[in-house]
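Checklist before submission:
- one chain only
- standard amino acids only
- sequence pasted in full

Submission:
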Amino acid sequence: MVMQLSRRTISEEIDFYGGFVQDEADKDHAAISIYGLRENISAIFRVFSDAFLSCEFPQKEFDEELNIALSRFKIDSEKVKFLCQRKFNACLFGTDNPYGQAAELSDFNALTREDLLAFYTSFYLNAKPVLFLVGDVDEKFIDEIRAWTSHLGKTKPVYEKKPAHSVTGRTYVEKKDAIQSAIRIGRIAVNKKHEDYFGLRLLDTILGGYFGSRLRGQYS
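Returned file contents:
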């Protein structure tokens, strides 16, 4: 039986067991990381599993999160780093390519709770996940994970691959009253399936591309 818990109750339950849940999403993937002690990980995962499989996205909470995201977008839009990255991606991949597209204010106004439910159903419930277990994990918990995957889809999402149309040369974007400047230089090179990918990532790290470094590469 799946429990119906509020967002606050879910957070408090996981915190009670000493757990922590972290999420991230970009243009390539979405990931959820669950942390916890070995003796409590099953209890933490049960709370997470119930929440994951029965998301309802109440309208009130949807509106609150949308307003937060919109406010953050407006603040970021005043930063030269943010503007530079948007323009760089558009020039590198083209505005018809998913990697070159960027959100606009109108996109936030057009987003609805039904859009979120449809995305959740298609890409979370009906898609085949990739799971990683790290640490001192016992066989009992592994069996729980295997049983949990039976509730999820078995197919991989199909994406339409679009070619990139790069704009070569120099592009300048003026930000009025800005006290800093942002510069991006790059070109399309190898993807993650190329044999030299990890070598280039290592070179990037050696040159300073790690954590908060100012110099780093971007790979897709």
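Reviewer check: The mean pLDDT is 88.
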